[in-house]
Amino acid sequence: MRTYTNVKDLGDLNTAVQEALEIKKNRYSYKGLGENKTLLMVFFNSSLRTRLSTQKAGMNLGMNTMVLDINQGAWKLETERGVIMDGDKSEHILEAIPVMGSYCDIIGVRAFAQFENKEDDYKEKILNQFIKYSGKPVFSMEAATGHPLQAFADLITIEEYKKTERPKVVMTWAPHPKALPQAVPNSFADFMNEADVDFVITHPEGYDLDPKFVRGAKVEYNQDKALAGADFVYAKNWAAYADPNYGKILSKDMSWTVTTQKMALTNNAYFMHCLPVRRNMIVSDDVIESPQSIVIPEAANREISAQTIIKRMLESL
Ligand code: CP
């Protein structure tokens, strides 16, 4: 595997999930694979889970790991070609990327949507420059339009907790004070559309996601209707995708918060969220603390999803 940016890079999804579950049984059994190999994790944005779980995954595989926070201690990077660099940016990304590539064997990159230019965000300008210029296998640690490590961990978690062959999985928008990218819901939709689940997306009107990710999923604007009979409720906020509102908050309607009353509409569903989560905006204290909340095992599976991807990349070196 040379790149991991979306569900297609995994090949057969069921095979990938089974491989992940095998790794989970003994996460140290491939310790020799990463000997004398270096994983570089580059962060343009903050992280708790991705940083720790991906570093742990690399260590499980015997790798040396390095972390670079671009905004803390590195030179400020110019990302546009042709710019006269007479401002505060000291280094161009076109030198920085191959230099980073020369110090490592595999690179993970986190670079969120900037909500300044939709086309640039949806072209994955930064991630694709790493793929083009680093000379090394590159995986997304959440880019502008996708978070495939998260979605893979989500799928592994659903596989572990499902009680029926084809569970009903509902991804619901929920309110948030800040404008958040569509990366997590895009990737979750991408994965659920490939998985053997009955997938429903619910959100207020105006929050439709890019059709490239929604594909054939059912979209229901009435949250109560969508939640009826759900086996898994996956809550997430995102800002508007459609023009002219790209990146804007259109609603903070608190009636979309996932509460005990909302969960009562479901088939005793499990509650999921990628974290970090704003309590009593996205989800009530009662729901996230309930026995049906699986946010912690979901986060723990981030180590397994990352390890599966890095293992496949090591095998391709
Ligand atoms: N879910 C997730 O990616 O968490 P972090 O932003 O903390 O890495």
Q: How would you portray this structure in words?
A:
This protein has 317 residues and is of the alpha/beta class. The chain has 2 domains: 159 residues, Rossmann fold, CATH 3.40.50; 149 residues, Aspartate/ornithine carbamoyltransferase (Rossmann fold, 3-Layer(aba) Sandwich). The protein contains 12 helices and 12 strands. The strands form 3 sheets. Strands 1-7-6-2-3 form a 5-stranded parallel beta sheet, with helices on both faces. It has a 5-stranded parallel beta sheet with strand order 10-9-8-11-12. α7 links the parallel β8 and β9. It is globular and about 55 Å long. It starts with a strand and ends with a helix. The relative contact order is 0.17. The mean pLDDT is 97. The structure holds phosphoric acid mono(formamide)ester. Phosphoric acid mono(formamide)ester binds next to α2.
H-E order: EHEHEEEHEHHEHEHEHEHEHEHH
**Which fold does the CATH topology of the largest domain refer to?**
Rossmann fold
Bound molecules: phosphoric acid mono(formamide)ester
Radius of gyration: 20 Å
| CATH level-4 homologous superfamily of the largest domain | Aspartate/ornithine carbamoyltransferase
Largest sheet: 5 strands, parallel
User: Could you give the order of strands across the largest sheet?
Assistant: 1-7-6-2-3
Structural category is: alpha/beta
Shape: globular
- Count of extended strands: 12
Q: Could you say what the CATH architecture of the largest domain is?
A: 3-Layer(aba) Sandwich
